[in-house]
Amino acid sequence: MTVTISLPSETEARLREQAAASGKDLSALIREAIEEKLAASGNTVAADCQSAEDFDKILDEFFAANPERLGALPADFSRADIYADHD
């Protein structure tokens, strides 16, 4: 997919400087910045997930980096707690 955006010249200059300093081309730097922004917002799809183990690893890494996103479950949490309102 190709996207065209207009940037102020000073923003472009800063991007070019950062790309050069990191040894990346401008497209790679911008793509990484967008991916990081999406990851930080929690709206990512696990494109690199090839197996159940990969998926578990991605989830473990996400929750380790974002403990506030999901509170801890009680130690005695059980299936019955999920269905407590179903008699």
Strand content: under 5%
Give the radius of gyration.
Answer: 20 Å
Q: Termini separation (Å)?
A: 51 Å
Helix-strand pattern: HHHH
Low-confidence stretches: none
Overall number of strands: 0
Mean pLDDT: 82
Largest sheet features: none
Number of helices: 4
Number of domains: 1
Textual characterization of the structure:
This protein has 87 residues and is mainly α. It has one domain. 55% of the residues lie in helices and 0% in strands. The protein has four helices and no strands. The longest helix has 16 residues.
What are its keywords?
single chain, elongated, 55% helix, 87 residues, mainly alpha, 4 helices
Secondary structure: elements and pairs:
Elements: H1 9-22, H2 26-41, H3 52-65, H4 79-82
Describe the structure in brief.
The protein has one domain. The protein is 55% helix and 0% strand.
